[in-house]
Design brief:
This protein has 14 helices and 16 strands. It is α/β, with parallel strands linked by helices. The strands form three sheets. Strands 2, 3, 4, 5, 8, 9, 10 and 11 form an eight-stranded mixed sheet that branches. Strands 6-7-12-13-16-15 form a six-stranded mixed sheet. Strands 1-14 form a two-stranded parallel ribbon. Strand 6 and strand 7 form a beta hairpin. Helix 5 crosses helix 11 and helix 12 packs parallel to helix 14. It binds pyridoxal-5'-phosphate. Pyridoxal-5'-phosphate binds next to helix 6.
Length: 419
């Protein structure tokens, strides 16, 4: 039987980009090197901290309350107070608990935010989400209730070495396409960016703050991999918070994706809207993540974990993956690696291939290497821009042996299909 569905229902009759990605990653062909996923690594020192916190909760009897009660949809008050003090200290700006919402993961939070600031507005106008730089996180793509809700600016691409390059915000685009001022309901960027590992500079961030202030729209910054936790950033940069910014944070990349806990920092009005939306859609937030976070921030343990364990772990991984590519790929492959400034991925650009990366994807899978083709990371881009089909994302989270084997397999396929 086939029911008739609403426009909202019809969105989910077909597979979505993020859904396909999650399905593929959940069902890898046997023996594959899984360089596709967004899971954090299982770092023993980090797992030991979760184990200790949860054991104490069980021993002290706190677990009964954690599993047996609904907490406020705004989030546990003490957790919001602790977060306010962490964000104040890290950004140097005064932040109050009323500026913080707890959500069931940042994906959930961005669903609310992207729909608060795009779609049909009371003045009858339709507004869009402006991505000031591409590529951008695949998970935003299908979140808007209205179709065609993205406006994107292609980046400036600069080669930074023989085999490396970096995307920059193309500031000229803001002048050459002045309609953005009328069309955009918010500006949105992830920092570090999933998929590229780009960390927009503090100066680029200031530029975006000034642009959003020009037209009184918020700047949404997604810090899922960034400051202050998990702090997977390999260059000098910092947490900046200014009026006009709404920022997302998550426990996931710290090592707790299963806890489904995220936080939003913003203005008091938008934060109250998030509390209300949360109670309508979710009733309230999951407790286990909130109570683990409470312990992390009460004890101050988070700082040492991020700076002494998690960041150095991923820094070593990115260097290993890059060095392996340089060592193991035939020099006939015309590739560049995006500067790895943060997050868990290398973003590879390969020119002069006889097939598009989407066409190569099943061949790579067959060859035993799962990556994520680049095309899905260009929401709102010109579909004729060939760059979309020349890039892919490679995760460096897995064991070194698997990373190396995967890189070798990818290299063989790329060599075969290089012109
Ligand atoms: C940039 C970015 N933002 C948000 C999320 C969502 O994370 P979560 O909902 O687990 O907090 C992810 C997950 O991969 C991500 O990469």
């Amino acid at each position: 039987m086939r029911y008739s569905y609403s426009d909202f229902g019809n969105k989910f009759l077909k597979q979505t980009g993020i859904g396909q990605l999650m399905d593929d990653l959940g069902n890898p062909p046997p023996g594959s090197c899984m360089l596709g996923g967004g899971n954090p690594a299982l770092i023993p020192e980090v797992s030991a901290v979760w184990k200790e916190i949860v054991s104490k909760q069980i021993e002290s009897g706190a677990m009964e309350k954690i599993l047996g009660s609904y907490e406020s949809p705004a989030g546990i008050r003490e957790l919001r107070e602790r977060l306010a003090s962490v964000f104040s200290e890290e950004s140097g700006s005064e932040i109050s608990p009323e500026q913080i919402a707890v959500t069931n993961g940042s994906q959930n939070a961005f669903y609310f935010l992207l729909n608060f600031f795009s779609g049909r507005f009371p003045d009858g106008r339709k507004r869009k989400i402006l991505f000031p730089i591409l590529p951008e996180y695949i998970g935003y793509t299908d979140q808007t209730l209205e179709e065609g809700s993205f406006l994107s600016f292609a980046p400036d691409i600069r080669e930074t070495g023989d085999r490396s390059y970096k995307y920059f915000i193309s500031k000229n685009k803001f002048d050459s396409y002045p309609d953005w001022k009328r069309e955009a309901g918010c500006i949105c960027v992830s920092r570090p960016t999933n998929p590229t590992g780009n960390v927009i500079t503090d100066e680029e961030l200031s530029f975006l703050i000034s642009k959003s202030a020009e037209v009184d729209i918020p700047l949404l910054v997604d810090n899922a991999y960034g400051f202050p936790f998990p702090g997977v950033v390999f260059k000098t940069a910092s947490l900046v918070h200014k009026p006009g910014m709404i920022q997302g944070f998550s426990l996931s990349k710290l090592g707790l994706p299963g806890a489904r806990t995220g936080f939003i920092l913003g203005d008091v009005e938008t934060i109250s809207m998030l509390h209300r939306a949360n109670s309508v859609i979710n009733l309230t937030n999951a407790n286990p993540g909130q109570f683990i976070a409470l312990e992390l921030f009460r004890s101050g343990l988070w700082k040492n974990l991020c700076r002494e364990v998690i960041q150095p772990f991923y820094r070593k991984k990115t260097l290993f993956a890059r060095e392996t590519i340089l060592r193991r790929w035939n020099s006939s492959i015309d590739y560049r690696i995006h500067e790895s400034e943060g997050a868990f991925f290398l973003w590879i650009w390969v020119k002069n291939l006889s097939l598009s990366v989407s066409e190569l994807y099943p061949i790579l899978k067959e060859a035993g290497a799962v990556v994520v083709p680049g095309k899905t990371f260009f929401p709102g881009a010109d579909p004729n821009w060939s760059h979309r089909e020349e890039c892919f994302r490679l995760s460096f989270v897995r064991e070194d042996k698997e990373i190396e084997e995967g890189i070798v397999r990818i290299g063989r396929v790329l060599e075969k299909f290089s012109k």
